[in-house]
């Protein structure tokens, strides 16, 4: 259900981003440069969040998230896809997410909310494990994009929490649903390995 919803919104969004991709391609901007720019924007968003400017941080994070879509689209449009590009993008995505969540933890710590700081750590652990489970499964030759909470869903939840002033509940949802997704991926890999025997 969530995958259908993602596809329903992602298709029109990609169509709107096509002119941006064409403009970047004409100026010979590389996908890795877009990936680096998205990382820089994520760091800027983290600084805004750390300073207490949550809505501004959310807006910057939206632009950074769009950059995460554009780099892949640009790579395909300019025939610059490569294993290193995929690795580079994935690694910088983890750095971006960790930086933003560290800023959220700092914000909660500054507000004297230690339980929410601990939940941010669990959210970060869950997000890293979701990515790790996929990478490890693919190392075993199993496609593993299943599960409720991919990076896109985590980003949308975090942005919504920042914009609506519901950052605590958003972090709780990210932590719980990310760890649930890890369980989904473990079950998927187990079933694939049993079916392969």
Largest sheet: none
| Beta content | under 5%
The ordered H/E elements are HHHHHHH
Structural class category: mainly alpha
- Give the quaternary arrangement of the chains: single chain
Number of strands: 0
Tell me the helix content: over 70%
Radius of gyration from the alpha-carbon trace, in angstroms: 17 Å
Low-confidence parts, pLDDT < 50 over ≥5 residues? Answer: none
Summed over residues and divided by their number, the pLDDT gives a mean of: 94
Count of runs of 4 or more consecutive helical residues: 7
CA-CA gap between termini? 30 Å
Query: Globular, elongated, flat, extended or rod-shaped: what is the shape?
Result: globular
Polypeptide structure, described:
The chain is an all-alpha fold and 197 residues long. The model has no long low-confidence stretch (mean pLDDT 94). The protein is globular and about 50 Å long.
Which labels suit this protein?
197 residues; mainly alpha; 0% strand
Chain-wise SSE layout:
Layout: H1 2-26, H2 31-50, H3 54-77, H4 83-110, H5 114-139, H6 151-164, H7 167-196
Summarize it.
This protein is mostly helical. It is built from seven helices and no strands.
